[in-house]
Amino acid sequence: MEDPREICGPIAHIYRSHLAYMAKELEPYGIGSGQFDFLMVLYRRDGISQETLARTLKVSKATSTRAIQSLEKEGYVYRQVDEEDRRAYKVYLTEKGKEMRGIVLEKLLSFVDTLLSDFTPEEKETFRRLVQKAALKLFEPGFEPPEKPGSLK
């Protein structure tokens, strides 16, 4: 490939459009664009540490803390001291958070339906497989952005 912008540009556009769409759709529920991803992770694995959430979503601990505090304030999650590490917190969905699962997934499905509306069923399947294959590479050990000199971990 000669120009990486031919891949990275559309991916970035899809991502930003996804965030904007979800923020608009979930605004009536008090869920911001930076918060629904946390719910999505908790829908797969409820009761994980704030640190694991931050690592999973590749965000800073500070960003994770702010998102979790917002979700906690809206009544979607609660934090509990980790029994194994009293300095850490585990994050759990409340009943209200669990009830939002269907709404969040419905909004997400609507976005994906729009995104893929001009695809044939075969193209949708091929796209799904290729996107998953590309994303898997980013989960491999060692794929981390290089640290900036003087940055804090």
From TrEMBL:
Entry keyword Acetylation: no
All copies of domain HTH marR-type, residue ranges: 1-136
UniProt GO MF annotations: DNA binding; DNA-binding transcription factor activity
Database matches in InterPro entries: HTH_MarR-typ, WH-like_DNA-bd_sf, WH_DNA-bd_sf
Transcription regulation is among the record's keywords: yes
Superkingdom of the organism of origin: Archaea
PANTHER family associated with the record: MARR FAMILY REGULATORY PROTEIN (PTHR42756:SF2), TRANSCRIPTIONAL REGULATOR, MARR (PTHR42756)
Official protein name in the record: MarR family transcriptional regulator
Annotated organism of origin: Methanosarcina acetivorans
